[in-house]
Amino acid sequence: MGPGVKPGARDVGAKMPEEVVQGRSAVYDRARAAGATIEQALREEARNVYGNDAKQDRNGNWIEQGVGSKSNETIGHYQAIRKFEGEIAYQRALKEIFARDPNHARKLSLPEPAKAGA
Description:
Elements lengths: L25 H8 L4 H13 L4 E2 L5 E2 L11 H11 L1 H14 L1 H6 L11
Antiparallel strand pairs: 1-2
Helix pairs in contact: 1-2, 3-4
């Protein structure tokens, strides 16, 4: 120990582990600073990310819903994939939606994915 340090002296600025900011998100940190429990802060964070009506599956994972989520894609979603991720990613996305929900793909007027040998 250095000079001026007293053994057993508690640093009044030290925080308990549950008081330390976790750095998850600004919403989480703000909720924790306001006195919310960890569970309440996580719920508040999820409400801000997934919406007020956020749902969880049986494993506790958040379910995406709304425009752009799985089974609710838009034509703009696929146009953006083609523009920013390239033709290979676009073809992969087409194969995925036609395998999962061909009626939704046809409703969006998406072209059939390219065949492997074509």
